[in-house]
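Project standup — Tuesday

K.O.: blocked on the structure for the chain from last sprint. Re-posting the sequence here as requested.
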Amino acid sequence: MQLNELIARINELAKKKKTTGLTLEEAKEQSKLRAKYLETFRSQMMNTIQSVKIVDPEGNDVTPEKLKRLKAKKGLH
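H.V.: unblocked you, prediction finished:
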C-alpha cells in the first residue's frame, strides 16, 4: 500500500469513527495503519535528518557530533 493510499484509508476510518463508529475489525485496521504510517514517517524523517549539514554564518560546519557519527556509521559522510 502506497503512502497516499494509506493516508486515505486512515482518513476514511477516522471519518467513519466520528459518524457511525467502527467495528472491532475496523478499529484494529485503523490501529495497524496508524502504526505503519508512523513507522514510514519516522523512517523518512530520519533519512532527511541524516542528509542535513548545519553551517554557521561564517561557513563553518556546526553539525552536531551525534549526527556526524550517525552519518559516518551509515557511510553517508
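K.O.: great, moving the ticket to review. Residues 3-74 form a domain with the Helix Hairpins fold (CATH 1.10.287.540). Helices lie at 3-19, 24-50, 65-74.
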